[in-house]
Amino acid sequence: MNQVNRLKGGQIDRSVTHRFKFDGKTFEGHQGDTLASALLANGVRLMGRSFKYHRPRGVLTAGSEEPNALVELRNGARQEPNSRATTIELFDGLLAKSQNRLGPLKYDLLAINDRFSNFLTAGFYYKTFMWPAAFWEKVYEPIIRRAAGLGSLSQLDDPDVYDKGFLHCDLLVIGAGPAGLAAALTAGRSGAEVILADEDFRMGGRLNCESLTLDDQSAPAWADDVVAELKSLPNVRVMHRTTIIGAFDHGIYGAVERISDHLIVPDLGKPRQILWRIYTKRTILATGAIERPIAFENNDRPGIMLASAIRTYANRFAVAANKKIVIFTNNDDGHRTAKDLHAMGVEVCGVIDVRADAPRSLDYEVLHGQVVDTKGRLGLNQVKIRLENGNIRSLDCGALGVSGGWNPNVHLTCHQRGRPTWRDDIAAFVPGVDLPLGMSVAGAASGIMSTTGALQSGTDAACAALSAIGIKSRAITIPQTEDAPVSIQPFWYVKGCRRAWIDLQNDVTVKDIQLSHQEGFRAVEHLKRYTTLGMATDQGKTSNMGGLAIMAELAGTSIPKAGTTIFRPPYTPTAIGVFAGRHRGQDFHPKRLTPSHKWAKEQGAAFVEVGNWMRAQWFPLAGETKWRESVDREVLAVRTSVGVCDVTTLGKIDVQGAEAAEFLNKIYCNGFAKLAVGKCRYGLMLREDGIAKDDGTAARLANDHFVVTTTTANALPVYRHMEFVRQCLFPDMDVQLISTTESWAQYAVAGPNSRALLQKIIDPFTDLSNDAFPFMSCANVTVCGGLRARLFRISFSGELAYELAVPTAYGDALIRKIIAVGAEFNVTPYGTEALGVLRIEKGHAAGNELNGTTTAQNLGMGKLVSKTKDSIGSILSERAALTAPGTLCQVGIKPLNPADPVIAGAHLMNEKGPIDAAHDQGYVTSACFSPNLGHAIAIGFLKDGDLRFGEKMRLVSPLTGIETKIEIVSAHFIDPQGERLRA
Amino acid sequence: MHSLKPVTALGGIEPRTDVFHHLSIIENDGLALASFAARRGFELECQTVLKGLLGVVPSVGKAIFNDPISGFWLGPDQWMLTAPHDSHELLADIVKNECGAAASMSEQTGAWVCFDVIGDALLAFCERICSAPIRQMQGGDTRRTSIHHLNCILIKQSAGDQIRIFGPRASADSLHHALFTTATALA
Fold first, then answer.
1. Using CA atoms, how far apart are residues A278 and A166, in angstroms rounded to an integer?
2. Is B115 found in the same domain as B24?
3. Which end of chain B is more exposed for a tag (fewer CB within 10 A), N or C?
4. Which residue has the higher pLDDT, A125 or A750?
């Protein structure tokens, strides 16, 4: 076969021939073809199998509404299932294969399903797979899951990239048919910023599909001229291959631009698609209308198509759907197809019109009647007609064009719950009054079905839209063209038919809808779920109306009273990849690198994500094969000499102003007003309900200047909270806040030799002696010969320790300097694991303990909550339920057998008695192995824990079968008197 | 003079420049930054100080380019000041000396990475990275915007074919990656 159905004319470029493969067989087509048009040109009608019954299926439409001709496009990692042959732009080397079949397409073994169709009606699996109950999970569900779906996934990572973008305009015109082009031209000439988007690769909409003239030009030529003018205007952006997938709040539209889908692979570095977010002041919806089919017995054979699609293939793609074609219609548009086909030399075997007053023709036979059945196993070869007088007549043909009228494409008007309204004169829903803000509708999408009407409504809509935003414009001169009225006799299905398909994609028949009605699933949304009508890739674009009409008839009501389903975004299937954009894999979210990151990487550090931060977790040395070896070494080094840890990630908030101290008094539950300049203080922050929010230190650098630190995880929430307090609760206070987390590189230098080490870093005029710079001191200092720095004598490890901050740009140099000058003390870098062990040994609370359920009293800091001032959360922290006997209290836990592990998350039970929730005594929040003590330790919360030191208990985890004998001790495992940190 | 050598936000000794035929992305490591917030009751005094420094007080969404100190609006009675780093490394202290207790100053140099982007494809580039309405923005217009999930400040320079992007310094690599891949996609 070599394009046996190719006609003359059309808008294809015959000078460019593309070779492509379908199911392994090579074909040729031309530039400007779709896969569907090229297959039809080559005489291929059979393109797939239906979802449930595996019936042979061919193409139904010529657009994105296609329910049938779905293929797997490309292969390997780029294989994309459920691609519509009607929208796939042909390119050289294209590979496609049919889907949803077992064996060759012609001999699909699963076609046996069709023999059992009586058992596979709507809702069959709700009824069929009830018994035995045990079979559901092991037998039925796996089988159903295997049978579900159409195409298959490659299971490989998508090798292409996707971009996102943002556009702004005065007017967005959706659809480049006659109404859209007229609107865009009107607005473009006025100077407004215009975006014209169309899903097709060729603009013009139905103008490309008709044999009309506009003035003295063919319709496609007129469209070409308009598009050329629009492209020449600097204020107009013309977007081919761009589908507006959703209408969202505030005039924002989602659009998918297919940049590379018409190429065999995207150009290097180029995205395959771009997801645009379009911000527009006004929108004109000019998405045209979609022709609908009529249901009759066996109306799903390959070769049975929408009449307008047959016209499109002939006029635009120069393809005859077959040599012999029959038309079945209830309106004048079917006759237009017949005329065009006849004019192009295609044999029109007859036009069957349900109307008694159908127009007659001298060129072909017009019959008053209905198609009642068809024949042809893999493709149509005969239609059976019941004439008005009751006689049956058969016509041999290879294609049947069906026209049941046109449905305005109202989808985008519904995305914000707009309800379409019914119009009897065109027997269709049109956009309702509750459109998305700023949207107007023009052309066939608004129910104006003539070309003249579409052009006029487009230019009028543009003038109105621009006027509303203060832009003057003038309507364009409308060319002379077709202006025929709509003549239609509503006709949805042939009475008496049973296996007549309403939804070809989901194999929903007239019988299924009758069953749905019979079983009480009559509401539109129930009908959809019970029968699957309108689901899947086409979302019922060609089927919803038919189903609705039949349900209305069965229910004895009108179509508008039966209602309509609400359309939701996206308008057409959209790749998940384009929603992800570049945010995938390791670029899923941005990373935050510490100032010492490069150096730590050089040391071979293991990293852990903490929020977006990448923190060094430990620093393995040669020969260390297990993480515990590294962590234990780091912990011991801090306890015995000195270690250094990057603590830049802790939140830092600059608090300045005449009332900065008063402000902190509100924020923290403990007092700050009297904190002396040059001193730090631990602070506990409560939520309004009295639960602990976060903790940290505040350092007073001047009377009107504090630096507050927060935990790493809560840096942003605390800053947000403080801004809320500043702006909303105490707007009259003179206090200013700004985050300085990333302004300063900050290192904890901890251990008995930390002072000696820092004396080699900090310039000599700063006296670091215990008397001059005692525990909880702070100061502005200089380091390494004059670099400004901040020094805080605070300790998370419980050792003599400092935190030293320098401007971030010098953070890399400072860590290298500390390591170099600390060599004589064997200074050891330590990561977050060692940090955790050190603080558990010291009994310091962290995120595990400040877990959103604990109070200051739980944390053993009840006395910290000042009674002499008001602060956020202080009153509610005194609620009876929070202070009653039996309140949880932070304790230390150690195993009776030093070899036993202690597991975080495990629960505390009395030494004897049942193990159940009613007898729960508390739980473990943090646990680790202490290399200093030589056994596992933990901290947790125990009822009346402060009164139970020395008590033997059981630590249990019923889920994992763990039961360990433990002893309750003070949480301060190391240096409970705090002598080391004050040394 | 101290002995510590600074590194750029991208971790280099020298700032990085990526030159495409249609765009250049230039890491600008030569700026000192300081935040300036008027204290309560001293708003007018602060306006006077800013006018002296910048010539004009930046209004909402605006930047003023001046020599040596420039500035842009951050929030009500809050601005960010910039100046050449070599001559104004201690910018916060310099301005604090002028405004005294009338304003709260914080050094912000280390908190930000700055990229200057220049070239013919600038508008298309901006449309791919953030939602700022770049085609409607005039020279000096400033937007707080999100780039690759990062809170950034975008300033359209007085020359219309150049923008300046301030982003969080700790995420300089991620931000640069986003800018670089976008520029590559447009090449």
1. 6
2. yes
3. N
4. A750
